[in-house]
Amino acid sequence: MMASEFRVKQETDDQILRNRPKPGSGYEEFRRRVLHLTALNQAHSLHVEPIVVQQIITMPTMRPEHSETLVNALEKGYCWVDEGDTGTLSRSVAGRVVISNYNISHLTVEERNKLFLYTNTLPENEIFVDIRPGLPGGDYPFRGVIRLRAFLAILGFLGRGVSEEVEFHVGQDSRTSEIQLNPPKTMEVEDGSNSLRKGTFSISYAGRIYSILDGVNPEAVWNLEAFRLLSQLYELAVHPAEFANPAPAITIAK
After folding, report:
1. Helix (H, G, I), strand (E, B), or coil: what is residue 134?
2. Which candidate, 83, 79, 78, 77, places its Cα nearest to that of 61?
3. Quick check: 188 and 224 in contact, CB under 8 A?
4. What does the pLDDT read at residue 198?
5. 138 to each of 42, 102, 133, 177, 221, how far by Cα in Å?
């Protein structure tokens, strides 16, 4: 729902896989990559977490004239360690969120710093994905960037999916473990000229009725969860200040 494309990093040019069911868009391969992330998430092997690095500043031993500088640094979360002739100011800094199949804290300091600097160059609507070989899910390794849609673009994607650009079933890659549920559509919107089936939510527009159907089967539950996510995204879009802290959790879904 939220992802508009997956820009997969390759040795030469990046491969752009768009989440749009049109010929030549890379839609099927996009879905397979997302299904692989979903399988890792089901197996509790997917890490969605910010990169945390240590910011360290070495300084001469503090003198009275430095006291104001030290107080300001401590108020910003730094810790002071006196080491004789010198001292260090240090603090933990959380960077961008990364989706991976490894624990970021297990990387070397150099690797974390490099990843921290790279991801900070990405636009705010992009998330770095890094599935490495030799780890859970590593039989199907890839790395790249997921670009997120704006809320109006999400509505456009779901609206086109009713009849213009209908999503279709895409099976998982052979290297992906079993998926619990893989419905063809991100969110099924029932489109009819009359209300023959009871919907949890419905609206009449231009002589037709559009609804989200009731049900207890897995597909219906998926549909209602998708609609609930959409309503949460709406709240984030119209009242962003209320959700500034804490940041919302990222859900792996189509």
Report:
1. coil
2. 83
3. no
4. 62
5. 15, 10, 4, 11, 30
